[in-house]
Amino acid sequence: MKILVYTFFAYQKLSSKLLHNLESESFDKCFISSNRSLELLLEKISKYDIVLGIADHNKKALKSRLDLTYINKYGKRKILNNSADFYKSNLDINQIKLNDFYVFKSYSNGRCNRSAYLIMNKITNSNLQTHFCFSHLSRKNISEDLKNLISALTNYTKAT
């Protein structure tokens, strides 16, 4: 079982610092700093059982959130022409037990959504077995929430 965790490279973001400093043999890391690094990530995803995107949640958030719907919009523009309006995470959320997380019932249209949409597009159109989700981690418990999420995903892949 192989897990890839990615985030956006930015010195001021807690998720970027956390992932950079986190030692782990149980998953690989990837940092998105440009469109080219996102393209390289898309080329890699077929090698993984699970791909997890992480970013900082807003400053007032008390819980981390799971983003499970991705829209074909980046700002006001479409991400891909002639492509699905939405993709949903292919992760069975009912098999993951995370007390300090909530499921985001809407969607965003920023760079987190853009990367998630492109990943689900690749998984869907290439018929990959890779599971994917994106999470915005609460700044209050960012380290613990990331460890809990990775643990839950590790158990998820063992159950599927």
Explain what the structure shows.
By secondary structure, the protein is α/β, with parallel strands linked by helices. It has helices at residues 14-21, 35-44, 111-125, 142-159, and strands spanning 3-8, 28-32, 50-56, 64-67, 69-71, 86-88, 101-104, 131-137. The chain is 32% helix and 24% strand. The protein contains four helices and eight strands; from the N terminus they run E-H-E-H-E-E-E-E-E-H-E-H. Strands 2-1-3-8-4-7 form a six-stranded mixed beta sheet, with helices on both faces. It starts with a strand and ends with a helix.
Quickly give the structural class.
Answer: alpha/beta
Give average pLDDT, whole number: 91
- Give a count of the beta strands, DSSP E runs of length 2 or more: 8
State Rg.
14 Å
| Gap between N and C termini | 11 Å
Order of helices and strands: EHEHEEEEEHEH
* Approximate helicity band: 25-40%
Note the beta-strand portion: 15-25%
Shape: globular
List unreliable stretches of 5+ residues: none
Query: How would you sum up the major sheet?
Result: 6 strands, mixed
Helix-strand layout with pairing:
Blueprint: E1 3-8, H1 14-21, E2 28-32, H2 35-44, E3 50-56, E4 64-67, E5 69-71, E6 86-88, E7 101-104, H3 111-125, E8 131-137, H4 142-159
Parallel strand pairs: 1-2, 1-3, 3-8, 4-7
Antiparallel strand pairs: 4-8, 5-6
Summarize the model shown.
By secondary structure, the protein is α/β, with parallel strands linked by helices. The chain has helices at residues 14-21, 35-44, 111-125, 142-159; strands at 3-8, 28-32, 50-56, 64-67, 69-71, 86-88, 101-104, 131-137.
